[in-house]
Amino acid sequence: MLKDILMQGLTILIQLVVLFVMGALFNYLDKKIGDEKIKKYYDLAKKAVQAAEQYFGAGKGVEKKAWVTSYLKQKFGDKLSPVDIDLLLESAVHE
């Protein structure tokens, strides 16, 4: 009983943190690369995440993240830093 309550509380806390981080992420990226480019980059990151989900399947998060990161680095080149790519990837995963 107590364990369930703690897990619910932890889940809610994690969701709030993710929402806050995503809001901060979009504000940061908006200032850095502008609205149109954010949408374009985010859509590509989202498609890459979906492709990795289909290709690798469930439970292979490390492999999927490595593949998507490599793909996005190849696509974006020096337009985005590795940190920006990671933020886009995490945002696409948590949508």
From TrEMBL:
Keywords: Membrane, Transmembrane, Transmembrane helix
Stored Pfam families: Phage_holin_6_1
Residue stretches spanning the membrane: 6-29
Name the record gives this protein: Phage holin, LL-H family
Provenance organism: Caloramator quimbayensis
